[in-house]
Amino acid sequence: MAGLEIRDVTVRYGVVTGSARGPGGVTAVDRVSLTVAPGEVVALLGPSGCGKSSLLRAVAGLEPLSGGRVVYDGEDLAGLPVHKRRFGLMFQEGQLFPHRDVRRNVAYGLETQELSRAERDARVATLLDLVGLAGYEGRAVPTLSGGEQQRVALARALAPQPRLLLLDEPLSALDRQLRERLAGEVRAALVETGTTAVFVTHDHAEAATVADRVGVMDRGRLLQVAAPDELRTAPASDRVAEFLGLRD
Ligand SMILES: Nc1ncnc2c1ncn2[C@@H]1O[C@H](COP(=O)(O)OP(=O)(O)OP(=O)(O)O)[C@@H](O)[C@H]1O
């Protein structure tokens, strides 16, 4: 199958044999299976501590699997280190190089590609245009607002055309109004570039804006995966309805 397949993935912490934390440890992700088709955007939604970030990190190769497989385009990624997966990562904040200007931040992911300066500058300009920051090339990072910084971070993450983009609460540090606007802009940028993506959030409105399908997680388990409309009209359980704000 093309795209991402997460098969029965389990992530446990503190299970080192002989560890003082005992044999059980914490099961952060418990036998989760999920597929993401090429060009699809899937959000992982759930309360703090439900295992969203652990699952994302396991897909990235940043966290070892205690069980299951992560497969991309039919290839099992076990043993393939983070930098060889050709996945992009974007986090909540603090990811830009503060001493580089906007152009050199966005160009960072292009440095390993053999591009002339003119080609690279053209790519940077296209990406900045895509995230609504045309002409910002020469701006210093500390002079940017929080929302502008996350737009630059998105442009930088998209620059090397990752085959999968993993976004971990990328808008959570921003105020609500800005978050709502940016969620729509992030979706537009992902759709326009045809980027396959997994977007972690604890905000159901944001998940519905950004994603084609939303996976609801609770205590390490994936409760339901469906299109936002379907989740609202046919939640699989009271717990799912609660996370979607359909119950008090
Ligand atoms: N490095 C670690 N060592 C031990 N336990 C961990 C570690 N990282 C996460 N956990 C635990 O695993 C569980 C899932 O954490 P995780 O960060 O994946 O959840 P989350 O849904 O992303 O939460 P949040 O929205 O607060 O970031 C939690 O109980 C957490 O305390």
TrEMBL record:
Q: Which PROSITE patterns match?
A: ABC_TRANSPORTER_1, ABC_TRANSPORTER_2
Which residues does the UniProt record annotate as the domain ABC transporter? 4-244
Q: Which SUPFAM superfamilies does the entry link to? A: P-loop containing nucleoside triphosphate hydrolases
Domain of life of the organism encoding this protein: Bacteria
Q: Which GO terms describe its molecular function?
A: ATP binding
This protein's UniProt keywords: ATP-binding, Cell inner membrane, Cell membrane, Ion transport, Iron, Iron transport, Membrane, Nucleotide-binding, Translocase, Transport
Query: What's the protein name?
Result: ABC transporter ATP-binding protein
Identify the species of origin.
Promicromonospora aerolata
